[in-house]
Amino acid sequence: MTLRLKIYATLGVIALVGYLALLASITHGDRTARVASAERSARLMIVQADAADQYTRHEIAPLLDSAMHSRLVFIPQSAGFYAVETQGRQIERALEGYRLRRVVLDSTGPADTPDGWERDAIMRLRGTPDGAPFAELRPDGALAYVVPLTMQDGICATCYPSRDQAPLSVRDAFGSAKGFDRHPGEIVGATIATVPVAPFNLFGNASLLLAALVLLICWASACLLIEFMVLRPLSQIATVAERVSLGAPDVEEFDTRSGGEIGALTLSFNRLRRSMETAMALVRP
């Protein structure tokens, strides 16, 4: 491999390593930003679910209390947890990959029954002193944001300190269900918002394409500078040196007007050439 190819290859490897390092940095930053965006969306879904729950329990339920007391019939539209379940179903239908679930331990039906991972998430909340919310990336690439559901009257179908303290309509609808005898402040379940995290698009990232173009231009510029400022002058010196060593007559001298190391080298070579010519003249008959 010639010196020229070695230099160009070395510069190419340096540019490639720099690009890979930049790629890793941009990919990590982009991934962090997309996860943070997904978490913000999940938090917003939780806030909206809590708003629907509180509005239903504080504004809608009092309007339906008389009907439930007189007929001893539980009306789901009066329950905050039903509003959250309905909202979750609408979100799943409208937005692919988005989920909103409010699940509880000792649930009363499939709508609020936690699956294996959701049950583990609830137990994780119950196992920490403060029961702080947490976010976790699922194996399918989605982000799940988990918020504890603390025991309050009516926060879930059977969230009452005892069966006797529950409204008659609730006792009639869920009297045989488990889940009563909840303790104040107990974490009885969780509200879980799941948001898909968009995959990283390597070829659609303008920053990476721009970085590749800039590195390519820098590599080409460095190669041209080395070619015209170092390699070509050295090649000319090598050609003249070969002609002088073979005893060719009337070999032109180098232009020594350029400064720097190449200029000093050509000046030294010219002096060496004159010395050789003088020595050759002395030994000729």
From TrEMBL:
Q: Name one GO biological process term.
A: signal transduction
Looking up CDD domains in the UniProt record yields: HAMP (cd06225)
Task: Tell me which SMART domains the record gives.
Answer: HAMP
**Record's Gene Ontology CC terms?**
membrane
Question: PROSITE patterns recorded for this chain?
Answer: HAMP
Q: What is this protein called?
A: Uncharacterized protein
